[in-house]
C-alpha cells in the first residue's frame, strides 16, 4: 500500500479523501492556491504546498506544477478527487510518465468515456439503449440545425466534453437554435476547452438514475446499485438518494448489468458512474459516464456500508477487488443535499464572502462532508458549495424526517445559502411521495424568490438581546478603564448604541421586508440574564437569554426553549433560526444626501450592476439603442456559467461601460439606462 498520496484538489473532497488516507496510515499531501492558503484541506493535510495564484488555470489545473510537487515530496500516487483534472486523460498520462500512480481509470478508458459522443457509440455497441439524437462528426451550423429539425423540438444541445450542466442548452423551437448553439459552445469552450456538441431528444419528465461501478485491473467489475439524482437546478444535482423509489429489483439488475457491460467494453478500472435517464414508462437510456468519484458517492457508501475511497486506493495499489456481485446489497435509505452559498433573490447566483459561523447539524445517521469551517471564505474563484449533508434512515420516510430535522438545525451566517430551498424540498408532499423528476423544482415553483413570511418573534428577541448584551459589555469595559484627569464624562448616547430610553424600558427598532418592528427591554432585577421583552406594544414576556459558543443564544420562556445564532454587522443583525437566516436592518438616521440622489425607485434601476465578478462574453446592445423590458443586454460569465443581464424596463441604453472580454468586479456598473 502507498505511504504518501498527493490530493490534487481542494475543499470538501480533499478533506474526504484525507480522512480515509489517515485511517489507512497514509500521509496526505495537499496542494493549494494563494487564495486557499488557510483552507481546511490545507490545515488537515500531513504536508501542504502552494501551487500558484487563485485562478484555477494558474494553480489547480497546472499539470506540470502538480507533478513537480508530487516528485519533490515523494508521493507515490495522486488522487484527483472530482472536478479540475479528475477526468483529464493528459493528466493521467503525465502521472504514468512520471512514475506516479493515478488513482483512477487508465488514460485510454478516460479519453474514450470522456467524449459523450464516443461513449454513446460504445454503449450502442454492447446493446445499451441511448437517447435518439445526433452525434455525428460535423459541427457545421447548418448541419446541426438540419439534424435538430429532424430530431424535433424540444431538444438538448450538450457539450461532448461536458459535465455539471455546463455547455447544455434546452431549445424549444428552430428559431432559437443558433443562438442557443452559440451560447453552449462559448460555455463549453470556457469550461472544458472543447466546443464540440451533440444533440439529444428532450425526454419529458424523466428521472436521472446513475449506477456506481467498481473494477480492478484484473477484469473483475461489479455495480453497487443506483443513486437517483433527479432534483436538479440548471442541470446541477442538489438532491441525491439511494435506492431509487422508481426501480424494481428486476429493473435495478437490468440497469446494473448494462452499466457493467459498458464499463467492461471500455476497459474500465477503479470507481466510475454510468448515468441514465428513466422515462415514465420505465425505459432507461444511457447518457454518459463520469470517470471519477462522484460528488454524491456518500449515499452509496451509506446503503452498502463500503468506503469507496478506500477501495479506490486498494485497486490503484494493485489489490484485487474481493467483492462479488451477489455480496452487494442495499440496506436502509440515504439522502444527500448540497448546501451552496447562493442567493435565491438573485436567481441563485453565488453568494461570496466570509462564512462567519458554520454550525453543522449533529446526531445519529447524520454525516456532513465540508471543506469550510467558521471564518473561512467563499471565493469567487471556485465552486460555492459549503457542505454536503448526508442522512441515513432505516427507510425513505425515516431518512426524509432526519433530513428535515438536520436542515432545521443547520446554522450558517455571513453568506446567503440554499438551505431554505432544501428544507422546502424535504417538506414537499411530492418529494415525500417520491414524485421526483428532473423538472421537479420548476413544476412546483420552488425556484421562485421565497415569498414574504411572518418574522418569528424569537428572531426579534434574539437580535435585541444580543445587541443589549453587546452594549452592556461595551459599557462595562468603558467604565472599567481608568479615567483621565480632565477628560469629559462618558456620553450615555454613545454606549447605548441603537438603544433609546422610553420610560423605564430601553427600545430599539429593526426593519425586515419593508416592515418596522419596535422592541423594548427591561432587566428583571431579581433574576440573572432575564428581561422583560415587549414587541410592537404586545404583552410583555419574561425571556432568559443564555449565551453559548459560535454566537449561540438560548432563549428560555418558562419551560419553553429556543436556539438562535446571532452576529452583528455595521448596519444589520443576522439571525439563524430553525434553518433560516434573517437579516434585520438597524434603524438609521435619514441620509439627506442619499435621499436627494435617489429620487424614486425608477431612478435606482437606471444603473445595472454585475451580480458578481466575471467576464463579459457578449454585448448585444449599443449606446442610444432602444430596448424592451427583459431584453438581454449583455452576458456575464462567472464560475464557468453564463448569466444574462436584462433590461428591467422598456427604455433606451444610455451607456454600455464594458466591451466583450472585459473582466469586471461584483457590483460594477455595466449598463446605464434611461
Structure description:
- With 674 residues, this protein is an alpha+beta fold.
- The protein folds into five domains: 4-103, Rossmann fold (3-Layer(aba) Sandwich), CATH 3.40.50.20; 132-201, ATP-grasp fold, A domain (Dna Ligase, domain 1), CATH 3.30.1490.20; 207-443, D-amino Acid Aminotransferase, Chain A, domain 1, CATH 3.30.470.20; 457-475 and 497-586, Glycoprotein, Type 4 Pilin, CATH 3.30.700; 599-673, Beta Barrel (OB fold (Dihydrolipoamide Acetyltransferase, E2P)), CATH 2.40.50.100.
- Helix content is 27%, strand content 31%.
- The protein is built from 19 helices and 42 strands.
- An eight-stranded antiparallel β-barrel has the order 27-28-29-30-31-32-33-34. It has a five-stranded parallel sheet with strand order 3-2-1-4-5, sandwiched between helices.
- A hairpin with a 2-residue loop joins strand 38 (632-638) and strand 39.
- The longest helix has 24 residues, at 457-480.
- The chain is globular, with a radius of gyration of 28 Å.
- The chain starts with a strand and ends with a strand.
